[in-house]
Amino acid sequence: MEEGNKIPKSASSRLCCRCNERKPALKRPKTLEQICRKCFYEVFEEEIHQVIVGNQLFKAGERVAIGASGGKDSTVLAYVMSELNRRHNYGLDLFLLSVDEGITGYRDDSLETVKRNEVQYGLPLKIVSYKELYGWTMDEIVKVIGLKNNCTFCGVFRRQALDRGAAYLKVDKLVTGHNADDIAETVLLNILRGDVARLSRCTSITTGEDGPIPRCKPFKYTYEKEIVMYAYFKKLDYFSTECIYSPNAYRGFAREFIKDLERIRPRAIVDIIKSGENFRISTSTKMPEQGTCERCGYISSQKWCKACVLLEGLNRGLPKLGIGRSRGLENGNGNRKDMEQNGDVRSIESKQCGSLDF
Amino acid sequence: MRCSESVGCPWSDVACCYWIYCSGGLELLCDSVKMHNVNVDLENGLEQLTMKDLLAWARTNLIKERPEMFMKGDTVRPGVLVLVNDCDWELSGQLDTTLQEKDVVVFISTLHGG
C-alpha cells in the first residue's frame, strides 16, 4: 500500500483489505496484504484447510499422530488440526507424539508444554525417548562426540523414534510442523551440500509413502512469521528456546540467509519452494536404491541404516563412524583410517549415491 | 533510566514511559525478565520518540548480553517480530513508527525450534 508524505502514527487511515471494517493488525509476508486479526485467523486456517484438501493429505477414519515438541510450530499445528478436524469433519483420530532426546534444560522444559497441550486440546500424548530406544541420551552422546555433528545424530535418531512411536500408537500417518521457512532452508541446504537425492525429495508435502509411516507437512506453505503471530494473538501456550547444541549447526547459515531474503522480498520463500518442486534430476544421475537395514529392518539405502551405523559407532567408541563423506573410495586410494581398524567398516560405509562429485 | 518488573507504572505522571515485552527467547537476553516498564529521555530537539530511538536505547539499556541476537545494524535482527500496541510495525513504518506514552512494544523472536 502506498505511503503518503505524512505517515500516520497508527494505521487508522487504512482498513483491513479483506473486510474493510477493522483496523489491520499485521502485514502478511506472503501477500503483503494488511489484514485485521479476525480476517487473519480466517485466511490462515482456510489456507491450511485448502492445502490439506488440495493435496489429499488425509482420509476419513485415519489415525494421525502430530509430532509435538512443545514449540511454536507443533503447538499451532495441534491447535489448527483439531480445530479443522472438528470444523470440516475430517473424521480423524488425532494424537500427540513427542520425542525426548534427553537434553537437559531444553527438552525437559518443552515436554512440560506438550503435557499442557495434551490437556488444553484434549489429544492423547505418547512420549518416546532416546534412552529407551537407543540406550543413549543426547547429553551422553555429545559428551562422547563433542559439539560438532550433534544434529546429525539427533536428526537421524529422531526420525526413527517418531516412526517407532507412530507404530506404537498404530497410526496411519504422521504430521509435522515444518513450515515454509524450514523447507526453503532445506532446499538451500541440499544445494549447498550437493545432495541431489535429498533435493528431489525435500519439497514433497508427503514423504515416506513407501516406508513404515507416511508423514506430511500441512504447514508447507505457511510462513513462520504468520505462525508466530497466530500463536501470539490467540495466546497459545508454547515453549521457545533454541536447543543448546544448535548454534553449531550448518542449517544456521541457510536460516540467516533466508531471513535476510525475507526482509528484502518476502515472496522469496515460497518462490524457493516452488523452484525446489520444479527441479528435475537427470536420469543418468545414480540415485540410492531403497532396501532395508540388515540389522534392524528399518528402511535404508545402504546395508545398515544410518541410525544403526551411528549407534555402532557410539557403542564401539568410534564416534566418527557414519559422519562425513567417504572420500577414499572415490579416488580409489582406499587409504582410510577406518578401514584399518576393522575390515567390516568398509562394507557399512559405502559411497553415498546421488551426491555431486566435484 | 531503569527497568522494572513491577506491573504498576511508577511514572504514571511522567510522559515518555513505555512497556516493552520480550518473548520467544529474547527475554533471556534481559536477565529472563519478560515485561519491562521503561522511561526514555528524549534527545534535544526531538518531539517524539521513534522506534529507531527506542531500539538504540534498548540495545544499551535493556539487553544485557549477546546484542547481535536482538539487533543487526540499526534495526532488529531478521527473524525478530515487532508489535506496537499489538499491531505489526510494518504497518506503521517500521523504524519510523512514532511512539506515544504508555505504548506497549512487543519483541518476539522466531529463531528457535518449532
TrEMBL record, chain A:
It comes from the Eukaryota. It is found in: Cytoplasm. One of its GO terms (cellular component) is cytosolic tRNA wobble base thiouridylase complex. Its main location: cytoplasm. InterPro entries: CTU1-like_ATP-bd, CTU1_C, Ncs6/Tuc1/Ctu1, Rossmann-like_a/b/a_fold, TilS/TtcA_N, tRNA_thiolation_TtcA_Ctu1. One of its GO terms (molecular function) is ATP binding. NCBIfam families: TIGR00269 family protein. Belongs to the TtcA family. CTU1/NCS6/ATPBD3 subfamily. This is Cytoplasmic tRNA 2-thiolation protein 1. The gene is NCS6.
From TrEMBL, chain B:
C-terminal thiocarboxylation occurs in 2 steps, it is first acyl-adenylated (-COAMP) via the hesA/moeB/thiF part of the MOCS3/UBA4 homolog, then thiocarboxylated (-COSH) via the rhodanese domain of the MOCS3/UBA4 homolog. InterPro entries: Beta-grasp_dom_sf, Mopterin_synth/thiamin_S_b, Urm1. The modification 1-thioglycine is found at G114. It is found in: Cytoplasm. It comes from the Eukaryota. GO terms for biological process: protein urmylation; tRNA thio-modification; tRNA wobble uridine modification. Keywords: Cytoplasm, Isopeptide bond, tRNA processing, Ubl conjugation pathway. Signal peptide: none annotated. GO terms for cellular component: cytosol. Pathway: tRNA modification; 5-methoxycarbonylmethyl-2-thiouridine-tRNA biosynthesis. There is a cross-link at G114 (Glycyl lysine isopeptide (Gly-Lys) (interchain with K-? in acceptor proteins)). Acts as a sulfur carrier required for 2-thiolation of mcm(5)S(2)U at tRNA wobble positions of cytosolic tRNA(Lys), tRNA(Glu) and tRNA(Gln). Serves as sulfur donor in tRNA 2-thiolation reaction by being thiocarboxylated (-COSH) at its C-terminus by MOCS3. The sulfur is then transferred to tRNA to form 2-thiolation of mcm(5)S(2)U. Also acts as a ubiquitin-like protein (UBL) that is covalently conjugated via an isopeptide bond to lysine residues of target proteins. PANTHER family: RURM1 PROTEIN. Belongs to the URM1 family. This is Ubiquitin-related modifier 1 homolog.
